[in-house]
Amino acid sequence: MNNNDSFIQKLRSSGLKATAQRIEICKVLFNRDKTFHFTIYDLSKFLNKKISLATIYNTVNAFKKKGYLKEISINSDKSYYDTNVSNHHHFFNESTNELIDLHNKDVEKVKIKKNIPGKKIKSIEVLVKIENSN
Description:
Blueprint: H1 3-13, H2 20-30, E1 37-38, H3 40-46, H4 53-66, E2 70-75, E3 78-82, E4 89-93, E5 98-102, E6 127-130
Parallel strand pairs: 4-6
Antiparallel strand pairs: 1-3, 2-3, 4-5
């Protein structure tokens, strides 16, 4: 199966029509060897604004709902998306606005001592905020 077939399946399983613009979004997101961290604005710039912001938002949100992308909220008004949907940790460089994978082997086991009645822990993912030291 070639990548376009894979992208078309991803789009259809997410409830989206496989348009040329959405296939282009898939190529940027999923046709790579390494994890891709991005904001909607970053993705829009990467696509050279040839695809409407609405199409980008709708596609990313559909992929997130389906589990193909993970959203990492940095603060109340900034979210990044990650093509690596496994549970893992991140560094966020506040000087450069770069999100960087922090591997599980680099973080000791995290212990949570508080329980919230009626809730269970789904996952623990550490976000370490850093800045350039100079």
